[in-house]
Description:
59% strand, 2 domains, 1 helix, single chain
Amino acid sequence: MRSRLRPVILRCVTRRYATLAFVALGVSASSAYADSGRMIDDDTFALSSHGPYLVDAGLLAGLPAALPSGITTGIGAGLMRECGCRFGYGVRASWSTETASSITWTVTHWDTRLRAVGEVRYDAGRGMLALRLGAGTTIVHEHRVRNQGMRAGLTGSALEDSTTDALPAGELEAVVGLHITGPWLAMISAGPSLEILDGDFRGGWVAQIGVGWQP
């Protein structure tokens, strides 16, 4: 009986050790492959230290500076420098356009916003909250074309004309930023705006969504 059982026991033990060896080999190979070729590691989304400068850019929308209605859309960008733990300053610029029509005219506006800005900010983990005040000028370029003017044989200033003006302006925006990976952030801002048009105050709004880079 013992002589018959011994080969069976040896085969079972041999198979078990062979199975364990294959499993260990597969785990080690898989681990080596993951360590050598993986695109995401433990530090990919780690929150790292960053410098004082923040550059951001994105899509912008707002109320046109000189048109009574509509939404002007375009792009905006800015450069900020942290000054201490809670304050920052910098510059911002944006360009946007809107077209409106009446019975007589088709009017296209280009709004170029140039701002000096200061902010109060608070960092909480990956998040950043700020209240940003900007002041400067909005350069408005207006191009008007008389509807059906070419069909009526109009030329020159009777058909179309353009004018450019610089308006004192500013915004007060709430800013939210979220560190995604490395120096990159997702950012969104929005708030009321104010322009002085023909001696009168004109209220509006502006918003931007985009990305930031803070190396």
